[in-house]
User: What shape does this take?
Amino acid sequence: MKHLYSIIKKPLFTEKGTIIKETENKLLVEVAMEANKIEIKNAFEKIFNVKVEKVATLKKPGKWKRYGRSIGKTPQRKKAVVTLRKGEKLDFIEGM
Assistant: This one.
């Protein structure tokens, strides 16, 4: 079993993420590339002590970037949209 804190990397504070957090009780987090939905759900429930209803994942491929003469690629990222059960609340900024 993987370590819980290696599965969930960090919360993503984006405009879309704050809108779905306020309206639909969903949280947007960056997770490890090799983590699956079941591992994300279990880690989220154990770390933050909340009940998770659903987890949706999506992969963002790396982009090609150019810095002068050299060309490089940004790393891939995997995001997860975690839906909390009705009545559950979690706020990363204010604490639990």
